[in-house]
Amino acid sequence: MAKCDEGYRCEVCGADVETVTESDLYLRFVLGEVPLELLHRLPERHLRCNPALAQYIVDPTFEAVACDGLFAKAELDSAFVAAEEHRVSRGYRRLLAIPTLGLAVPEYPLSVTPDGEIS
Q1: Which distant-in-sequence residues (6+ apart) come within 8 Å of 111 by Cβ?
Q2: Are 44 and 10 in contact, with CB atoms under 8 Å apart?
Q3: How far apart are CA 88 and CA 15, in angstroms?
Q4: What is the rounded CA–CA span in Å between residue 47 and residue 64?
Q5: Is residue 76 within 8 Å of 56, Cβ to Cβ?
Q6: Residue 116 belongs to a domain
Q7: Could you give the number of structural domains in the chain?
Q8: Helix (H, G, I), strand (E, B), or coil: what is residue 17?
């Protein structure tokens, strides 16, 4: 079996990240934070194993994750938190849809407008 068919090990917990829908790396790719050419070279994590990002997912299909410390959203500006919740939750919904969209990997990311807004 090819490596791409085996999934990847989470650098945090060591378990396999079995699907794209539980992948922190692919969520960051969808959000435009990871370039395509680095996708196969960066470490993988489960969404839940990266609480600094996962805390911003607000969706009924995702159990809330708390992040402790300086990066906890409770410690941050409420306008920033609201914007991140909107952006990351939208990316998460795209991530959930990927298996049914019939897209090639380069088509996964959300579009970004010239002013930096995700559309």
Answers
A1: 118, 119
A2: yes
A3: 24
A4: 11
A5: no
A6: no
A7: 1
A8: strand
Q: How many CB atoms lie within 10 A of CB 4?
A: 8
Residue that has been written with the tokens 């699907």 in this structure: 19
Strand-pair partners of 23: 46
Please give the chain's pLDDT, 119 residues, in tens: 234 555 589 999 999 999 999 999 999 999 999 999 999 899 999 999 999 999 999 999 999 999 999 999 999 999 999 999 999 999 999 999 999 999 999 999 998 655 555 55
In a domain, 118, yes or no: no
Print the domain residue range for 15: 3-107
Q: Does any domain span residue 98?
A: yes
Amino acid at the residue 13: C
Q: Extract the tokens encoding 9.
A: 């090990």
| Residue found by looking up tokens 């079996």 in the block | 1
